[in-house]
Amino acid sequence: MAFRRSQPGSPASVTGAGAPGPIGEDDVGGEVRCIPRGARVRRNALVGRDGELAGLRDALDRSPHRGGTLILRGEAGVGKSALLAAARTEAAGRRLRVLRIAAVQAEFRLPFAGVDTLLRQLAGGAAVSGQDNPYQVALTVLTLLTEAAEDRPLVLSVEDAQWLDQPSWEALAFVGRRLEADPVLLLMAMRDGEETEARLAGAGLAELRVPPLDQAHAAALLDRHAPGLRPDLRSRVLTEAAGNPLGLMELAVAATRFGEDTLPPASLPLTTRLERTFAVVVSQLPAPTRSLLLVAALNDGDRLDEILTAGSLEAGEPVTLAALEPAVSARLLDIDSTYRVSFRHPLVRSSIRQQAGPVKRRQVHAALAQVLRDADRRVWHRAAVTIGPDEEIAADLAAMAERARERGALSTAVAALQRAAQLCTRPAERSCLLVDAAELAYDVGDSQTFEQLLRVISEPDLPAAERARLHWMREIAAGEWSGASRFVSHAAIAERMLLAGDTDRAVRTLQMISLRCWWSNPDPATREAILAVADRLDLDPLDPRLLYVLALAGPIERGADTLDRLSHLMSQDEPGPVHLHLLAVASGALGAPGPSIVFMAAAVAGLRDQGRLGLLAQALVHQAFAAAQLGDTVLALTAATEAGGLAAETGQGRWVLTAQLTRAQAEALRGNGEAARALADQAERMLLSIGAYPMLAMVQQVRGIDALSDGRYAEAYDHLRRIVEPTDTAYHAYMRFSVLAYLAEAGTRCGRHDDVRRVAAELEPFAAATGSPALKAGLACARALAAPDDAAEPLFLTGIADDLAAWPFERARLQLAYGAWLRRRRRSVESRPPLRAAIGALEALGAAPWAERARQELRASGETIRRARDGRDDLTPQERQIARLAAEGLPNREIAARLFLSSRTVSTHLYRIYPKLGVSSRTELARVMSATPGTRS
């Protein structure tokens, strides 16, 4: 047995506390003896599963104090359900509360089917709201589960989790990653296959592999079930079952009951052989039973009344429960006390569906479509009946896809759009539906469907506006970076949209172009083409969407004017979080990280409240980027770390990369060079592989800051110089404004004063046109640092007092440089005040290398400031977040809601935080978190 962590209608039944039945003949993978309710699972209860049972027992042993998630993986019929049943029985014996969900393939396209009954059970009737997205649902599930476990530890068992609908899977995986501190154990069984591989890739959930039984245990299990088999038949069953417990039992039963000739050929895969074996069993049942089994197999719910009503409609006469009794006796399905129907094994369901002819299947789908009341379930069955084109059903499917998209059920929306396209007769509309489906498939991370759809879309049938989207997606699929080559044509498409009266779509197209524009170094003509369309938009001059486009597409041409408009919005009523996010990005793109931080703080808070984790991840990346520009390493590292985790969790690979680079910059500023270099190297390999050369500027910035913090000034200058050199692959037209201060510091420390002055002179003309605060701050640093000795002092004083008032990191570094300049001129007493001020600011920002340099200069002046050990340096980024929020007076429940954690997880973190900071109360915590680092001696 080995654990590993995977790389970062209603369900059939939900059983309450004390309800799981004993392990009996319906459980495969071990001995068939019954275990009394409440008894501990004995080591030999399941044949050959001692190791797996020990792993489950260890997880249960921890459950009163802490929880977690464990995925049981293996082939169909290998015994995963038996192991889950054993765990449920043991949990009930320990008086733990046990909940059970069994997913079915028919519900795969129904948003939130997997968690709806769970929520009803936990919340006393509350169900998933039509407006909820997967992460809002996940937060609700997390809260309800952890609250339910406060008085009594809880075990949640999920069978066939590979068939959970995508929103339910996302919600439960989200919950599963956050259960370590809570007495909730989530156990999920998943059958090997592409769906399982796709879901577990990067999920970060612990796995327990359930292999086939070895030869000795397989023989022992077979002898218990079929002791009278002829030796030759026994040998054949053992060979063909290959250690699969379900295969052993079903092949043995089929051979005994129906004869050896009914065994499928050994050349077929075991799953196929089992399905054929079940088909033999089904074929022996009465015709009414077979018909009703097909209704149950094709139904996407498990309610007995639905099945009987549809069966009666299909048969043309009343059908009663008695018709299902032969199937129950044949151990093909079960009916629980609440009249919910569940198949004994998913292969039974798939076998029944495969054996039915197309005419019979269509008849059953038609009956179900008449019986079901839920509109979305009904339209799927109507679509299953339809053979040729049908515009009405296509429109209903498209409408259902939109409802699913709004709820965040993107996989369901993709499937609905694909089926709608098949039923649509108009080529242009069909191609548009497929473009929508491809875009959603990309958003959900389904690369196989995404690429397959791109191959079948007919570009000539698309309107010009949709061709732009198709070009973007094909570029993504190819893993290439086209830069600015298509911007002019896409701007022309946006203009045609505008002329056609579709302003909203024109704006969305321009937004899509402008973000890439900022990162592509387009020539002036290209920028002007985009800006010309933006100027013709019929929007309020202060519309955040317009300001976003102007800022990212034309920082040089429209920078100063756009900054004025952004400044005006700072004093107005707050728009919603999405528009705040746009304003924050626009401010950052124009070199104004201060306003960006203000806008983004409100945006992040609003997005947290709305549970919009995908956009929140992007917002946190921009927040971290702005904080790093201001030298605030604490906020930069905290936001970048959370952003990277959320971006990975929501399948946004490129935002993971950007978060990684921003985190690397924060690490470099803090003096953690090894971590910064490793992150930068990894990012560089990715950027080079896709040809995203302008983004290499971020890599060079990290390397330059790392070398600068370590005193390798010439190396730092060489790294940073590449960003301002137009012929270099790492050149970036706008990032050169924000790196000028670093370039000036590195250059003047290694004797390249003339080159620093030359670069500053080249950038000086852009200051007025762009209005860029970052460029103005950089020029102030460069003028002072590179000035001749006889002209330097007034420039130092002006920079410190005026130019850099809103730039704490640049101001502190200039104070350090000024103090050093004074000390070298034997003006030691005068040097101390700026050095002291520099130390305080640099320590508060977390820029340890510069703070240490300032302390060395102060010691050389004859004064010492020893830095007291600061426990805050020992906190992880998440612990810093929690400590800051607790210091602000927020209760654990509110902190948990903001950070998408459970209250108990917050409590556990605080339990670790207090000793690190040497405090014992929230009052002391608030004092420590607000204190200025360092003490004087």
Primary descriptors:
disordered N terminus; two-stranded antiparallel ribbon; mainly alpha; globular; 8 domains; 8 strands; single chain; 937 residues; Rossmann fold
Map the helices and strands:
Layout: E1 3-5, H1 50-62, E2 68-74, H2 80-93, E3 97-102, H3 113-123, H4 134-148, E4 154-159, H5 166-176, E5 184-191, H6 194-200, E6 206-209, H7 215-225, H8 231-241, H9 245-258, H10 270-283, H11 287-298, H12 304-315, H13 325-329, E7 333-335, E8 341-343, H14 346-355, H15 358-371, H16 375-385, H17 391-406, H18 410-423, H19 427-444, H20 447-456, H21 464-478, H22 487-499, H23 503-518, H24 524-535, H25 544-553, H26 555-569, H27 577-589, H28 593-610, H29 613-629, H30 633-649, H31 653-670, H32 673-690, H33 696-709, H34 713-724, H35 735-749, H36 753-770, H37 773-786, H38 789-803, H39 808-824, H40 828-845, H41 848-860, H42 877-887, H43 892-899, H44 903-917, H45 922-930
Parallel strand pairs: 2-5, 2-6, 3-4, 4-5
Antiparallel strand pairs: 1-6, 7-8
Helix pairs in contact: 1-2, 3-4, 4-5, 7-9, 8-9, 9-10, 10-14, 11-12, 11-14, 12-15, 15-16, 16-17, 17-18, 18-19, 19-20, 19-21, 20-21, 22-23, 22-24, 23-24, 23-25, 24-25, 25-26, 25-27, 26-36, 27-28, 27-29, 28-29, 29-30, 29-31, 30-31, 30-42, 31-32, 31-33, 32-33, 33-34, 33-35, 34-35, 35-36, 35-37, ...
Keywords: ATP-binding, Nucleotide-binding
Region (Disordered): 1-30
GO molecular function, one term: DNA binding
